[in-house]
Amino acid sequence: MRPNILWICTDQQRGDTLGCTGNRFVTTPNIDALARRSAHFERAYVQSPVCMPSRASFLTGRYPRTTRLRQNGQVIPADERPISRLLADAGYHCGLVGKFHLAPADPAVNASIETRINDGYAEFCWAGDPHDNWGEHSGYTAFLSKRGKRFETPPHPDCAFVEIGMPEDLHEATWCAERAIDFIERRASSAAPWMFSLNMFAPHHPFNPPEDYLQPYLGRLGEIPLPAALDNDLSGKPAFQAVDATGAYGRTMPYGRHMSDHDHRMVRAAYWAMCDLVDVKVGAILEALERTGQIDNTIVIFMSDHGEMLGDHGIYLKGPYFYEPAIRVPLIVSWPGTIAPQRHGGLTELVDLAPTLLDACGLDPHPGMQGRSLWPQLTGREPPAGRADIYCEYYNAMPFHRDPTPQLTMLRTQSHKIVVDHANDDGELYDLGADPGETVNLWRDGDALPVKADMLTRLAHRMAFTVDPLPPRISEW
C-alpha cells in the first residue's frame, strides 16, 4: 500500500526558527515534537535563494538552470514534470492550497490565477499571496469575503517596519490549515493514496503577525539579539550586498542597516511570531491526520522554499547572496513505523526530495531528475552520509539589480564556501570553521589561493553535472 504524502512548505523561513534548532525565543512545540519522532535534517539547503527557481527545483528534482525557470516572473516550461504530476499519473489524488509560484504571481500578467502546466493537481485552492489584488480568483480572498472581511494590515504604532496582521481566525495560515484538514478528512475513506501540498505564505514579509502572537515578544524585546554582523564591512564583497543593505531589493523596500536597534528587534519579533503561528497550524493538521487514522500511512514533510536574511550583514529579505540564513532551511521527514527518529547532520539538497518521494512510493525516478533519493538513508539501508558539497544558483533571479545583472553560483563544503559573481569577475570565499558568520572574505587573500583553486574546480564540476539529462539516450549511436 503506497503512503499518502502531506507536504508542508512555508515561505522564506530560515533554518534557525524552531525550538529544535536552538532558537530560545520561538514557541514551536508541534514542529519540535515532529522533529523528535522523524528524520530531522539539520543542514538542508535550497538550490536557489529565491522563490520560483527554488520551488521548480525541489518539485522536479532538477537544478534551476535545468528547469529553465531561473527567475521570478518566468513560466515553468510545459514539458517539466513536477512530482505532483508524476504521482497523479501513478494513481495519486493530488491537492494544493496556498502558494504554488511556478509562473508569475502578477495579476497584470495573468487574468486569473497563475498560469498552470499539467501539474497533476486535481484540487487547486490557490492564493499567490494574502493580498486582495487577485480578487475572488484568490481562494483566501474568497474566504475573507464570505465572512464580510477584507485583507487589512495597518502599520504597528511602535515600528514603521512591522504591521498588525489579520487575526488568527482570519489569517491566511488558518485558511490554508482549514483547507488541508478538510482534504484530509475527505480522503480518509478513499482507497486511493493522496498527496497534499500545503503552501503557507508565512513567515514571508511583510512582517505582520496577528497582534496577540506578537504581544508576548514585546515584554522581552530587549533580550532579542540584534542581527548578526549587522555592521560588517561589505565593501570587499559583491556590490549587490552593499546596495541591499541600504534598502532591500535594490533599495525598493525600506528594510536595511539604517533601522534603529528597536526596529531590528521588532522585525525579528514579528518574524518569529509568524513562525509561532505556523507551528499552531501544523499542530492542528497533524491532529487531523491522527484523528482520521491516517498518520501511520502518511509521509509528512515540513520545510521552506528558502531563508530570510533578517538583518544579518545589514541585509533583509533575499537576493543575490548565499549566506547561511538565505539558503539553509528546516527539513523534517516523517513516516511513523518506517522512518525511525534520527538526526542528520550531513549536507542535504532539496533537489533530492522529489526522487526520494518516488522511491518511498515504489516508483522509478523520472529520467530528467538530477537529485538522488534519500530513501535508503531514511530507512537505514545506507548510513546518513550527506553530500560532499551543496550547489546553488542565482541567474538574474530577481529584477532589482542591473548593469550588470547578477549571475552567481555557489558551492559549500563542510569547511568552506565559495561564491562566484560571474558578471563582475568577483566573488566570496569563507573558511566556515574559522569564520562561521561569513564576515571575512578570502577571495583576494593570497594565502587562500590553494583553497580557492580547489573550490573553483569543485564548483566547475558541479556546474557541469547540471546539464539536462533529457532527452534520454535511446541508442548507442
Would you write up a description of this structure?
It is a single chain. The chain has 477 residues and is an alpha/beta fold. Helices cover 28% and strands 18% of the residues. The protein is built from 14 helices and 15 strands. Helix 6 runs parallel beside helix 10 (261-291) and helix 7 packs across helix 10. It is globular and about 65 Å long. The two termini are 41 Å apart.
How do you describe this structure in short?
This protein has helices spanning 29-36, 51-60, 64-67, 83-89, 139-145, 172-187, 211-218, 239-245, 248-251, 261-291, 324-327, 353-360, 375-378, 449-464; strands at residues 4-10, 39-45, 93-98, 121-126, 155-156, 159-163, 194-199, 298-304, 328-329, 331-334, 342-349, 389-395, 407-413, 416-421, 426-431. It is an alpha/beta fold and 477 residues long.
Highlighted features:
single chain, 477 residues, alpha/beta, nine-stranded mixed β-sheet, 14 helices, 15 strands
The number of helical segments is 14
Q: Give the full name of the CATH homologous superfamily.
A: Alkaline Phosphatase, subunit A
Calculate the terminal CA-CA distance, rounded to whole Å. Answer: 41 Å
Write down the Rg: 21 Å
Regions with pLDDT < 50 over 5+ consecutive residues? none
Mean pLDDT: 96
Do you know the CATH architecture? 3-Layer(aba) Sandwich
Supply the CATH class: Alpha Beta
